[in-house]
Every structure is written in C-alpha cells, then in structure tokens.
C-alpha cells in the first residue's frame, strides 16, 4: 500500500450497522486491510451488547463508539464513565445537551480511562445530524438561521467544553476549521460516492470532496457494507480519497 493509500486508510471509518457480533467481526476481518477504524453504533451495541467493542478491539483495529449520549449532565457522565471502560478510541455525545453535559462527559471519560491505565478516548460531539436538511431544520424543528451557523456555534461550544472535535456533514468542514482550528477533529458521515444510491442522508459529499475540505475522518456505512463486494467498495473509496491527499 503506498503512502497516500495508507493515509486514506487511517482516515476511513466503516459503520458496522449490523445486528450480531459475528456479522460485525466478519466485516472487520474482511475490511481491516483497507480500513483503520470501525464504528459501533446503536444498532450493533443494543443488539449485541457491550462486549462487541472488546471483541472488535481484539482484531487490532480502532473503534469509534457512537452512542450519541444526550441527557442531564450527571446521567451522561455516569454512562460515559461506563463506556470508557470498554477500550473505545472515540466516544460521542450530542452537542445539543449543552456545555455542562459535554464537560461532565469528557471529565468522566478521561478520569475512568486514567484509572484503568487506558489511553483516553477522544470525546467528540454530534452537531446537526446529516439526515436533516434546511427545511426540516427550520420549519419542523423551529430553529432560526441556517444549519451551517448552528453547526459552527455548537462546534465552538464543544471546543470551549474541552472536547476533541465534532461530527458534522462535510458541507460544514470549512466553517468549523475556520472557527476551531487545525487540531480540532472533524468526523464526517454523509459520505456518498458518485456511484452510490441516494437514501436518508441529506447533507452529502463524495469521499474526495470531504477529504479536499479537510475532514479528519470519513464515516461510511451502506456504500461499503451494503455492497455485494464490501472490500472492493472500500478499495474504490480509498483510491478516491488518496487522489486528493
Ligand atoms: O454520529 C454519527 O456517526 C452520525 C452522525 C450524523 O450526523 N449522521 C450519521 O449518519 N451518523 C452515523 O454515520 C453512519 C452513516 O452510515 P451510512 O449512511 O450508511 O453511510 C450511521 O451509522 C449513522 O448513525
């Protein structure tokens, strides 16, 4: 693997949105030559249980534990403390929970990881979900202004709360970078290669466009896991990313 493909591999996160540990491990084994990190989200975690995180880590890959915690600060801190013991590399909470909640989560995660002698996972916030478009944002949810402005404001709050970065759509990368700097991690789902089908994702870009905008990591699910040949799909995405790295 050449240097650019290797760099692309480090930036690619595949969402393991399946129901069983066996199905998840099968994908990890198939894809780990091309993918550096795997995402365990609500579907897999709630179906298979917490041990799935340890089983995936045993395969020698990194894990983004995407449970999008959102509750009062004390509840989120206690839940985050429990999750920090599982050995994930990234944990997330919703920015809409506010700075006190985010600060409590980050503090609990870092304290527990240190007590266990584990490296501290990155703690990041989810801003405006990539399935939300401007009409839903404004008319249904009742927010004023545009999505980009809200994402920028929540990214700034996230940084002020001492978190490591955000999840946002690739369309907001430029404004987040400008507001939060180069060290702030920006993780972008809503990745749709030109050859993939359209679905519930609304604020989308291709892998090359997202890299070009300066994404730290790309999260890709169905375009890889729903393909008849997931390894070939991952390879195509890697090549598209590498072209602009
Ligand atoms: O936090 C996330 O990972 C996330 C945030 C967001 O705004 N949008 C979003 O799609 N995600 C997750 O990213 C993954 C995207 O998967 P695909 O739409 O299949 O590529 C899913 O597992 C989502 O849960």
Layout: helices, strands, pairs:
Blueprint: H1 3-11, E1 12-15, H2 21-31, E2 37-40, H3 42-48, H4 51-57, E3 62-69, H5 73-84, E4 90-94, H6 99-116, E5 122-126, H7 134-140, H8 147-160, E6 165-167, H9 173-180, E7 185-188, H10 207-213, E8 217-220, H11 222-225, H12 230-243
Parallel strand pairs: 1-2, 1-8, 2-3, 3-4, 4-5, 5-6, 6-7, 7-8
Helix pairs in contact: 1-12, 5-6, 8-9, 10-12
The structure holds orotidine-5'-monophosphate.
Plain-language structure description:
Pfam families: OMPdecase. With 245 residues, the chain is of the alpha/beta class. The protein has one domain (3-240): TIM Barrel, CATH 3.20.20.70. It is 48% helix and 15% strand. It contains 12 helices and 8 strands. Strands 1-2-3-4-5-6-7-8 form an 8-stranded parallel beta barrel, surrounded by 8 helices. Helix 10 links the parallel strand 7 (185-188) and strand 8. Helix 1 (3-11) crosses helix 12, helix 5 packs parallel to helix 6 (99-116) and helix 10 runs parallel beside helix 12 (230-243). The longest helix is centred in the middle third of the chain and has 18 residues, at 99-116. The protein starts with a helix and ends with a helix. 45% of the residues are buried. The structure holds orotidine-5'-monophosphate. Orotidine-5'-monophosphate (OMP) binds at residues 15, 17, 41, 66, 68, 92, 126, 129-130, 167, 189, 201, 219-222.
